[in-house]
Structures are given as C-alpha cells and as structure tokens.
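TA notes. Do not distribute before section.
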Amino acid sequence: MARVLTRLLALTALLAACPHLSAQVIPTAAPPAPAPALEAPRTALVPVQPRLPPPAEAPPNLPGPYFEHDPLVDHPNLPPLGWFGEIDAALLDVHVKRQSFINAPPLPGGGFVPQGQLDWAVSPRGQVGYRLPEGFGEFSVSFRFLSTEGGDTLFAEGLVNLRDRLDFETVDLDYASNEISLWPDTEMRWRLGVRIANAYFDSRQSTPFGLAVPPDGVTDRRFTNWFGGAGPVFGLQLIHRLPDSHASLLCRIDGASIFGRINESYSQNGVPDAAGAPRRFSERFSSSQDVPILNVQVGLTWQFQPAVDAFFGYQFESWWNVGRLGKIDSRGEFQDQGIIARLSLCW
C-alpha cells in the first residue's frame, strides 16, 4: 500500500513540473469561434455631373428651313428663282403622210381620198412655272397648238377639188431640274412629266357644182382621223455659254409616248346609179394605239438680263402612228419643220 501511494505522488509531481506535457496528454476542447457580423449593403455611387450651360443662340449665317436661297446650290449662271414664263412661236411647214382605206373591199376604189398640200402655219406655245431654291427643281405647265389647212385641184377624170386640214393641241405637266456639273460653261436641264395630246386631220375630194360627174358617179368623198390620249414626256436641254459673250448654244430634245384611241371615218355621196340606188356610204373604225412624238430644237440664245433671254433656231417634229389602224391597213403620220423664236422671263 505504501508503495502504491509513493508512485502516485511521484507521478503527480512530474506532471506539475512539465505543464506542456500535460497539455499534449490531456486535450482540452477549443472555444467556439464567434459568428461573423452581417455587412451593410453598399450603395453604388452616381457621379454628379456639373450643370450644363444654357444653349447659345444660332449664328445668323446658318441655313434656315427648306426652300431658302443657298449660294452653293443656286448657282448664279442658272435662271433666277421664283415664277417664270416662256412664250414661243414656230413658223412650220407641215406634211401629212397617210395610206388610208386602201384595202377596204366594200368601198369603191378602196375608199381612197387624195391629199392636198397644207399651208405653212404658226404654232404658238405658252408656259408658266415656279423654280424652287436649294436645287429642288421646278414645276411648270405648258400649252401648244397648231392649225393649218390647204388645198389643190386635180384634173384626173374631170376637175376635182381637194381640201385638207390639220389641228393638234398638247398640254404638258412637267418637273425639271438643272445640273451644272458637266464641263466648264455648260449647263444641263432635264424634265419629266405627263403630256395630254389631241390630233385631227381630214381630206375632202369634191366635184365643183355644174361640172361633169366623174365616171364612178361619186361627187364627194371625205376621210377623217382623230387621235386623243396621254402619256409620259421627257426632255433634255444642253446650253453651252460662249466665252466673253451673252450668247449661248442651245440644243433641246423632247420625246413623248402617247397612248390613246384612234377614230377614223369615211363617207361618200354621189348621183344615183343606173338602178336608181343612191351612191351613199359611211363607215367608222376605231382602235387603241401608241403614238411616239419627237421634237428637236437647235439654235442660239441671247441673255439680255439675268431674268430675260431669247432663243432663235430651227425645229423638227414628228408624230408617228397617229393614223394607224391595222385591221383596215390604214397608216398616217405627220412631220413639221421650220424656224422658232422664244422669249423667257422670270419675276
């Protein structure tokens, strides 16, 4: 018993002398870690801009709204802006070429009426329009007409009088624009629009009263042709200014394609035949047709003032298919050519 107590005391003294050994031999529980504190949400910082100064007034030389004068686009060589007008007159020699009712079996002689020579005629034209600034172009309306008649006398199978007539009218509604970017001292002007056209021509053959009746007994024959329609019209004008001069060379080409209706008629009267039947006949024919029109003008212009200029030159014009009816083999067209003078004004 004494030996056991002695050993316990010796062990107790050894543990007391070496505390680190007792920590390794007898482990102790570690204290619990403290709970992490909750962080407050961070608010995004918005940068504060400095206060902007009030807008300054626009300089007076800046361009304003549309349709105001712009010196970069409204070139001084171009015609002045605003209202403008043109008046021209052409002295023309007119020729009608037709082949009418040649293959119409019911008609005596095929229904052919000879032609006479038309007189020279004056064809007036008037135009009024408005030019917009800043290169926006111009709008215009124009009206032109021609009226002429003529006659002749034939001595084939007796004395026969011929009488011919031609009338036409056109109305153009156009938009046009000027270009100055071709080559030096040269301007280009193009136009596009709609043309309304009407053309009428007829021929009449008659035997003077009191003279011998022709062998076929027909004393009066008449052929008429009327065309009316509308279609696009387009044109191109080139002006070359001569150096150190108010004069310029001008070339204008206009073309149109008019779609409309042709109405033709033939009538005749004469003395009764051997059986007492009257020699009367009348027939009408109609069909749709496209009529091309070409007008060319070449001449010289002279500018008196920036708003006044004059033109004098030559004109050629042709209307094709204006009397074309395929089912009766009828053909008809006319051309005119002559001198033309024009005066242009701006205000």
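Switch to the second chain here.
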Amino acid sequence: MEITQFTIQIIILGIPGIFCFFVASKLVGRIGKDKFDAFLAIFLFSVLSYVIYSLGVEIYNLIVCVKTDNNILSNLITDQNNIRAIDILLATISSFILALIISYIYNFNLLNRFAQIIRATKRYGDEDVWHYFHNIHSPKISDWFVVRNLERDLMYSGNITTYSETDKERELLIKEVDVYKNSTGEYMYSADEVYLSLDKNNITIEINPKDKYQRTNG
C-alpha cells in the first residue's frame, strides 16, 4: 500500500498525541479498550497539545508584551504545510504537560469528585473496586495491610507498595512482611519484600493502622 504525502503529514502532526498517549499510559495504565479507542485518544491528545502550546504562546505574548506569531491552530486546520518543525517540537513538549494533567485527573478521580460535589454522579471513577481500594490507600508508613491467600492458607502482614493493573491475576509487592498460617495465626517467617500473584477469588485484603496492629500482636 502506497503511503501518500498526506498520510506522512498526518503522522508527523500526530507526534505530540502519540507521545502523550505513551506517557499517559505509563502513568495511568491502559487507555481505551481497543485500537479504535487508542486512535481517538491520540487524535484528541494531539489537538489538546497544540491548544496548550497555542495558549502558552498567548501567555508569553502577554507577559513580554511582544507579538509572537501564533497561527498554530489556524495553520493546523487550513494548511498543514505551514506547520513548522519547531511547532511540532514545542507541541510535543506541551503533550508531556498534558500527560501529567491526565495522570492527576485519573489517579485522584478529580472529574468524578467534582461531579459528586454537584451531584451529577455517584460513581467513584475507578475501573473496579480493586483500583479504587489501592488509589485511596496509597502507600503510607502508618498503614499496615493484611493479605490473606485463602488457597494456600497463608497471611501476609506488611506494606503494599505496588499493585497490578490487570484484572486477570492480583499481583502485589509487599515490603516488611511477616508471614503467618492463616487458619491458626502461627508465625512462619519474615522477609524484606514479597511478590504475590494470586487468583482474584482467593485473596482478601484488610487494612489496619500500624500502631494498632503492633499493640494487638505484641
């Protein structure tokens, strides 16, 4: 299949969106359910990156009182040949800022929190309760988690520092771990770090203040 000049121009203009898509995916996890969703996200991120860049130019003009050429959006719509390499570069830098904004909005559920304030929704915003639980309990030294592996009759007491994004298996990285027999409470061993990969039907997680757990268990 022949690649036309127009296709090449579209790909080049989409560089900010592609960059933003990959950075945001690293920060918030998978974006979209399929390739079509990913394409729409890249298109939207590209447009927003150029908008942020254009707003940045306007703010610069107001601060230094110098009229810098700012035909970025009009050139993007009317004549793609007028888009300069420096515009694409600076829009790509703007896309990094956009990725950070997307990360804040997603990880702190800012959109849903605002919607809850105005009573537009009751949804908490995360993909499922697994993500919601770990988002509201970000790693803190004062939090002590008890993870129970029901299948192997084991109990892990420690601090969860990392959790999986996939819904197939529940992967956890736990630090400062004490391992017990779940059915009897018998102490077995301790470890600095433990990696767990558990079936979602054979795991429960409890959270207690660290000082309360230590008082209860001596």
